[in-house]
Specification:
Order of helices and strands: HEEHEHEEHH
Number of helices: 5
Low-confidence stretches: none
Strand content: 5-15%
Shape: globular
Helix content: 40-55%
Number of strands: 5
Oligomer: single chain
Strand order of the largest sheet: 3-2-5
Radius of gyration: 18 Å
Length: 145
Amino acid sequence: EAGHMVPMVVARYCDAARTGQTSVTNWGTGRAIRDWVYVGDAARAIVLAAKGQTEPLCDGTPINIGSGTGNTVRELCEVCQKLSGFSGEVLWDESKPDGIARRYCDVARAQELLGFSAEVSLEEGLRRTIDWYRDYIATNFAGTP
């Protein structure tokens, strides 16, 4: 499986719930930690940066946009399972890689220079994404299993 984790996990659980699958298999152990930020929050940060007029914004130093907190892959999958309504068995294929153990952002510069901090929680962002995905599937793939 290739792709970005959140869309893959959302599709995996939503499709499993929709088609009545009895199990879902996730890669790795689920212990890897990532920093996920809702797209609306990320877009707001970009707008704040574009509107900014301060010299530090133009010095070439990166500004990390994220939640500033980490969640495990297992937490992501558990929330997707709950919100999608998938009631089957959840399996973990530990022969597959977890990737880097911890990857999340230091968002201090975004807070300092842009006044930015993420507003949408992981669960709320996933709820919105799952709602969008279900609408997309219903509109574009009606009648497809």
